[in-house]
Design brief:
By secondary structure, the chain is mostly helical. Helix content is about 70%, strand content about 0%. Keywords: Transferase.
């Protein structure tokens, strides 16, 4: 294992919070390529989020990643060592490049777009920010059938929506709101209320609507956990159960993510693994 792959594994194991990334549930032959995919996404996401760079500088960094993908696509040697390792993994597993481009498009969008008028716009963002990961995993597993891709898209989009729900305050500090604006108006939720961390009034009614929609979407993809065999099926069921755990915690606290941001604790993982092993 080269140093870049080892660093990617370390990054994957240290950065996840509520959902496992390249976890020990998976065979080692899959953990390494998944860690490289995660490292690509994490680095690109950090370009959009971290530090004090100007928007044009952030976009330039993402364009640099895009140019490296172009080199891989053209059969040329990438300039940076990380992309050379990534290119070898992509070739070895015959992965499509479009999901990598889609991720970069989503991260670029985060720099220039901070509000979403309706749920269709939010889902279009999820299509590029979350679904590519599920699609790449299915290609790694050799299970990228149309039916499985549909299941994976539902799971990944649902997990992205769940992340939006738990990170309302964090995203607002970055001047981002992923709630559909038309739904905020319908439930009389204002940006001032989010800024104040105010979960009173119609907040719980609004959050119930958002929680239940995410739950239905997650459940619509849940059969994938039974379709995928062996340890990859167990990993998928664990991820789904982790999402369900966050939704349950959101419901328990009436959607008050300002005072009770949900996090999966060590004792939750025991319950999640038990559920995943039982296939329930």
């Amino acid at each position: 294992m080269n140093s870049i792959t080892q660093a990617s594994l370390s990054l994957a194991s240290s950065h996840y919070e509520n959902f496992p990334v390249a976890s020990i549930l998976l065979p080692l032959r899959l953990r390494q390529p998944i860690a490289l995919i995660y490292s690509f996404a994490r680095q690109a996401d950090d370009f959009a989020d971290e530090g004090d760079l100007a928007p044009e500088q952030r976009l330039a960094l993402l364009e640099g990643f895009r140019q490296e993908l172009d080199r891989i696509n053209a059969g040329a040697v990438p300039q940076h060592a990380f992309f050379q390792t990534l290119a070898a993994m992509i070739a070895r597993h015959k992965l499509p490049l479009q999901p990598f481009y889609d991720l970069l498009d989503a991260f670029s969008q985060d720099i220039v777009k901070s509000r979403y008028e309706n749920f269709g716009q939010v889902m279009d963002y999820c299509r590029r920010s979350a679904n590519p990961i599920g699609r790449l995993l299915l290609h790694l597993y050799g299970k990228a059938t149309p039916r499985n891709i549909g299941y994976a898209d539902a799971i990944c989009s649902a997990l992205q929506l769940i992340n939006f729900l738990q990170d309302v305050a964090i995203d607002y500090r970055k001047d981002r709101i992923y709630f559909p604006q038309d739904e905020m108006r319908k439930f009389r939720i204002t940006e001032a209320q989010i800024a104040a961390g105010d979960a009173s009034g119609t907040w719980w009614t609004f959050m119930q609507f958002e929680i239940e929609r995410a739950r239905r979407l997650l459940q619509s993809g849940a059969p994938l956990g039974l379709v995928l065999p062996g340890r990859i099926g167990l990993e998928m069921r664990t991820i789904i159960a982790g999402g369900e755990t966050i939704l349950r915690k959101l419901h328990q606290h009436h959607g008050d993510v300002f005072q009770h941001r949900p996090v999966v604790r060590s004792w939750d993982w025991a319950r999640i693994l038990f559920k995943a092993i039982r296939k329930k």
